Amino acid sequence: MQARMSAMAPDDGLSDDAMDTFNPVLLPNPELSNLAEIENIMRNASTTPAGRDALGKFVMAPDALYIPKLIPLVDMAEDLEDLPDLHRLCNMMKHLILLNDNTIIELIVTDDLILGVVGALEYDPDFPSHKANHRQYLSDESKFKEVVKIENPEIKKKIHYTYRLQYLKDVVLARILDDPTFSVLNSLIFFHQVAIVDHIQSNPAFLKDLFGIFDPEQLDQQRKKDAVLFIQQCCAVSKNIQLQARAALYQGFISNGLLAVVTFALKHQDASVRVAGTDILVALIDHDPAMMRTNIFKAVNDRTKPLTDTLIELLLVEVDLGVKSQMGDALKVLLDPAANTTSVEMLGRANGEFLAKMRPAAQTAPQTDSFIQHFYSESARKLFQPLKDLENRESLEHLTYHEVALFQSLVEILSFFIRQHSFRSKYFTLSESLHARVAQLMSSRDNALKLAALKYFRVCIGLQDEFHNRQMISGLLFAPVLRLVTDTMPRDNLLNSACLELFEFIKRESIKQLITHIVETYRSILESITYVPTFANLIRKYEQLTSPYQPTEAGDTSFTTQDGTPNRSTVGNGRAFQGLKDTDPDEEAYFNTSDPEDEEEGALPTTAIPKPMSNGASPVRPLVAYPDDDDDVMDILTASPNAPNSSEDNKEARQDENEEARGRDPASAPGNHPASGLSRSKSPPERLAEKRRREEDEEDELGKMMLGGGGGAGGTKRRSSASSANSDRSSSS
After folding, report:
1. How many alpha carbons lie under 13 Å from residue 179 in its C-beta half-sphere?
2. pTM of the predicted model as reported, rounded to 2 decimal places
3. pLDDT above 50: residue 20
4. Which residues contact 408 (CB under 8 A, 6 or more apart)?
5. Are the C-beta atoms of residues 280 and 231 closer than 8 Å to each other?
6. For residues 546 and 230, what is the distance between their CA atoms, to the nearest angstrom?
7. What digits encode the pLDDT tens for the residues 601-642?
């Protein structure tokens, strides 16, 4: 039976070609008359993996050349205006592309087939009343501008293929692409781009001709514009390649004068050229900010105009908001001490941008520190001069749109400097009085500008730095913030909520310096704002801070009485500490009274119970009298036939012990309850010595009796243990 089953089972060792013989895909010669049959065969074959493989191998077979046979049918169907056949041809092209075969996709983007393929894809059956213009767009050769002649035909071909693949991915097939096909297209584009970049950076003659276009003797401005756009595309392509290849490309560009090209682009009259120049600069800074600082610092040492000054000049006059934002971001990255070398970027890719930005300040390179120092001494005043000029303006009611955008950018950059450059930014803001100038912006009509100024003060307070707190107190800068609250209340808009959050933060963090100033200076205004409890709570917090002996409200234990006292208002898991619970009077009365059972038995009141001893032991005698070992021994000896007089001796010994105990224990006297045993005192030394002598005599008597009666060693051992236990009890008593 097993032999039959093994013979019937398919052979797993068959090759792919042998497996295809079981599921062959044979397509008839394509004609307009059998397009419906071919479409059905392709659709059925695409439903299974084996059918997809078989279909792909048949289409790409050297003797078949099936796709080139379909291209002429597109023109024939268009001439006949046969819309159903055009829809069938579109579906057939989709099936072939979605096979995820690299060879098929590389074949359809060739010069001979690309127009026919996209021509068939223009007639999408999902949109029967619309027709796309893919052929018109791809056949327009004016979009390909050869700024510097590329001698290598393979590289030129790869440039065209990359352009067509991107068009297919982003436009033609954007609606129907699945993940496997998307990955295949991206991989093909990536390998073509790597080959193109490698050719450019390894060709010194090409780079020399490219940057030679920007020579002052060259007067062709259109060619210079095209060269800037070409460099921008190269930088955009380099973002997708490996780090080593990208570094080699940028190094080649910089060595041939890329920074001069960036300066030329940023000063160009055409907005598209300025955008391209900003993109190039941002790409360079993102790649390696330390390299850019090195080149800028070199320009400073050479007494030439650095790139930062060019950025500042253009930022102040730029009208395009996108370019202005990019220039501001470029300045931030250049002046960020945490972004030092290319390793920062590699660390960010491996472990996230958070780890890359959290590098300690101690690792800041000395050159970076010198670069920042030079910026504050030379360039910072130029950058924030518009804010400084607000001192002479009486009113900000009629700010233009471009002025509002400029002040927003400057306040955002200043907030970044406050966070990143704690020492230098303090001296700079103090010398230029920038806190007061930013507060002046709150008097404008633009709500976005007010919010930007409020965000700046929120950053200063969030640092909890005494320097910024003193500046805000000395300049009375909370007055415009409170004016914003009164102007916007009781509306729940973003501006009003931001103001309330600022005061809530001050109260929550218990910043005593600010709370005292706000309440003592603006108390009447705070008391008039009653639509939210924020300011009433702020006044209550002030009273807690200034009156340390005043009881606090329930659940609020976050106050401090001295500067620097830590906040102990929370315990584990973030829960608020509620203090010790007060004792219930009923519970206190219950524990102070005695139990009813004790009262019935005549027990002493609770106040008569003595305190426990210092070592934790209690002098109270047990309520249950357990039998001692002496009693067990005496019972055994009484039952012994060789001890006829033992019972009388035992009775006498017990009687003596009871009399002795009765004399020692006042509890056994008349008037004392025998169960309490609470007034027992220590035995005098005379009674202890007498008891020890009596016990020794008893031991001698018992020893003689056991020797005479044959008790043996076992009886002696039992008696000695009993006597030792008895002596222990007597000594403890």
Report:
1. 0
2. 0.59
3. no
4. 448, 449, 452
5. yes
6. 68
7. 444 444 444 444 444 444 444 455 555 554 544 444 444 444
